[in-house]
Amino acid sequence: TDNYRPSYNKSPQSFSSVLLSSRHFNKDAPADECVLAAMRWGLVPAWFKENDPSKIQYNTSNCRSESLLEKKSYKDPLLKGQRCVILADGFYEWRRTEKEKQPFFIYFPQTQGGQVPVWTKERWRLLTIAGLFDSWTPPCGGETLYTYTVIIVDASPNLQSIHDRMPAVLDGEDEVRRWLDFGEVKSLEAMKLLHPNSSLTFHPVSSLVNNSRNNSPECLQPVELTVKKAVQPTASSKMMMSWLKTASPTKRKNPDEDTSAKAPEERFAAEKQTKPTGPLQQWLLGTGSSKKPRT
Questions:
Q1: What are the φ and ψ backbone dihedral angles of 202, each rounded to 5 degrees?
Q2: Structurally, how many domains does the chain consist of?
Q3: What pairing do the DSSP bridges indicate for beta strands 201-204 and 101-107?
Q4: Is 257 domain-assigned?
Q5: What is the CATH number of the domain that holds 76?
Q6: Residue-wise over 203-212: b if at least 16 C-beta within 10 A, else e?
């Protein structure tokens, strides 16, 4: 546990608090006994042959539930019963738009008696996320490294506006117990616990979380989303546009114009215009021949 450090903004390759059955270390331990361990986020398979775990060629920070039995990296630990539960206050997910990514913090509703929100550290209900773990020892020898991957499923209806996937969240002590009890609950039966969870709530947060180096309480604080209002044309601008549509000479097509570089809104606006388009009208509409940088 020496490697574990609490954080407001964890990223892959950092260490997290992970819950697992004590029977992984002591076969005689009670079936319901658990141990809390620090594991590195990003599964390194036991069979990985390099001496440096960072040289793994693919992303193992999460795995799709439907692929667990298809990929050796996940199938092996699953069939060996190496199931774990990642503990976290919540997780961040980004809603992607054409111009930016808006982060959200997603978590269990924090209530007391179903009425009053609870935002204290002592009474915060932690997320319990289903995962798989593996242990890897460098071929050249050295300390064994324990790593994990987060299992993801389709997003619940209330989260689909943010992202189409979400972590497989176990809801309640019984689901956590069954997921961890690899002796009593076999792999195929345990996989039935992997499904979208509609009980989560969320709020938008600052873009501070876009950089994992930012690690402060501000990362979690709710922010208000501002909606930019469309600029309404004035009477004089309407008159100018009307004149341009009737008086402007037809523009010759510029063979160097990169229409593929325009944002969808700009393409749509350009396609809606009538054929007579003058240089000034193009400038007003932002559809001139100058190329827009790709984003």
A1: -160, 165
A2: 2
A3: antiparallel
A4: yes
A5: 3.90.1680.10
A6: eebbebbeee
